[in-house]
Amino acid sequence: MKNLRDYGIVTGAYWAFTLTDGALRMLVLLHLHDIGYSPFEIASLFLFYEFFGVVTNLLGGWIGARIGLKPTLTVGLGLQVISLGLLAANSSSLSVPLVLVAQALSGTAKDLTKMSSKSYVKLVVPDGDQRGLMRLVALLTGSKNTLKGLGFFLGGWLLTLLGFRVTCLAMAAALLLALSMAALTLPPAVGRTKRKINLKHLISRDARINWLSAARLFLFGARDVWFVLALPVFLSSSLGWSHAEVGGALALWVIGYGLVQALAPLHVGTSSAGDSGDSSRAGELGGWTLALVIPLGGMIGGLLLGAPVVVTLVSGLVLFGAVFATNSAIHSYLIVAYADADRVALSVGFYYMSNAAGRLIGTLLSGVLYQMAGQGQAGLNLCLAASLLFVVVSFLFCLRLTSAEDHLEPRAEL
User: How far is CA 199 from CA 66, 114, 282, 346, in A?
Assistant: First the structure.
């Protein structure tokens, strides 16, 4: 494979960032809940994280295509260090404006780092090796989510053990090490396009990328509308779980999710015959998306009928995680496969803009719906119902993607 050493460095930096980002998400959520913020207030503070992710993916892909992936990666790592430093320096008096600024920096950092790392995959795998591309994308994405799960556990555990301020400082130091390694070793021009691009290229002209991005938006909205805020707050306030228990439970879920994602090439279509392989996987995507109705419907029904709450949620989480992970793996493969190698950052940035928009909508609705229904079990059920609706919409966009695969010849963007 090409540039494998550099890819290892990029992946290592992405792993370090993901571990600390997962810890920071759990750290901020639980700490703000402890000091009296309502679910809607917490969700509102996370909106800056998601909103700046939308902006960063749109512009970051364009910037990465113009100047290369090394600057976007190192700036992303540096912004997260600044965010952690701000939170640590003001840990005893976290005001709303301060948390909003920190979340804006963190959201920008996350998506610069993710866009840079995932774009690099296209530059490593030989042209035409679709099976190898699927394996490498699934491995990167799955391992990232496994580490994010460990970060959830780490955040809950370190908050209990070391406190908010010391944990933020320790994570900032770890990221500074990863930043130094990337800055000193990566070539400066990697990922830079040789063709002229301007702002009109921010919007994809490939119908496949557009339908895939729309499906991604509603897929991740379906996850975050109940998982990102309603579930951890419900576990903490309604079931009385400790910080470590909430962080540990969500960590185990995300770790398992990441493992299934990394192994997805073993149980999804294995065709590697160029475009027909992409078409086959696009068709599979709709089926895996619709399958999410089963665990969501099961959790809603179980909670309404008075089934044991913990058993209902755990079994639903396991099944939802396995199906969702497979969905995400196919999604992540298809966007890299569709992207033109010379401008991969543009396509990946546009696609993950939709991902961030879905997270933004899901996060907002998670806080609004959970609080609107009076919190507790009623709030969680309403969030699950919204998730079910989002899944159906994502499935409809998958059908349009399949149609685009069947009727449009794959082509580079103009």
Answer: 11, 21, 29, 11
